[in-house]
Design goal:
Structural class: mainly alpha
Shape: globular
Radius of gyration: 14 Å
Largest sheet: none
Strand content: under 5%
Order of helices and strands: HHHHH
Length: 87
């Protein structure tokens, strides 16, 4: 049975990791195999907007990569620009 975003939100515990997993399992648009970038961004966006709190937001791979990518040694290197539904 298809799930809506609100269905997944309603079932989510206070775990960003569990929420991202539920999104990836329950909704095709969040199922970019292997990395689940969109599924990881969703709880971070909800927390940033102040509509959800997650006790383990720092455990998401995307959060770690984003913060590491802000370091000067990484910012100094040119990066590719890819436009698709998974970014």
């Amino acid at each position: 049975m298809p799930h809506t975003y609100l269905d997944v939100c309603a079932r989510a515990p206070a775990s960003a990791e569990a929420f991202a997993t539920a999104l990836a399992r329950g909704m095709t648009m969040f199922r970019d195999r292997g990395f689940y970038k969109r599924a990881q961004i969703a709880p971070a966006d909800l927390a940033l907007a102040g509509v959800a709190e997650f006790r383990d937001l720092n455990r998401l791979l995307d959060n770690w990569l984003w913060n590491r990518g802000q370091e000067p040694q990484y910012k100094a290197r040119p990066r590719h620009r890819c436009r698709c539904v998974y970014y």
